[in-house]
Amino acid sequence: MCIFDGALHSVNAPYKIGDRTQNLAGKTVIVSEQAKLRSAISRAYYAAFHQAKQVLEAKDRLTIPLQNVHKFVINQFQNYPDPIRQKIGNRLQVLRGYRNQADYESSTPVTEAISQFKKITLVSKKRQFKNEVHQLESLTKESPSVKV
Fold first, then answer.
1. pTM for this entry
2. 48, 58, 65, 106: which is deepest, by most CB within 10 A?
C-alpha cells in the first residue's frame, strides 16, 4: 500500500487518465479526483499570475524581486491607480487563495461542489483577467509616449 494525495491506495491499482494507465517508478498508482481538481486550480492560478508578471516586466519595465514574487505582483496591481489593474490584483489574490488551499491544505478535501464552483470561477476570472489585460494594453498603445 502507498499513500497518495492523502488517500490509501494499492500500488497494484491502475492509474488512469482517460483511457490510459500510467506506471510510476515501476508501481501502478491511482490518481485521485482530489489530485486532479487540485492540479486544475493550481494551473489556473499560475496561468493568470504569469500573465500579470509579464505585464509588469514588459509594459512597466519593472524588475521582479526573487523573494515574495507572488505578493509583489499582486500588490503592484492592487496599488496601481487604474481601477482595471486594481481588479486584476484583487482577482489574483482570490485565485492565489484557492491555489494555496489546493496545494498546501491536503487535509481539507476539495469537494466536487466547491471544486466545480472554483473551476467555473477560475475560468471566468481568467477570461476576465485576459480581457482586462488586453484593455490595459490597448490603453497603453493609445496613449502617446512622453519622451524626455
1. 0.60
2. 48
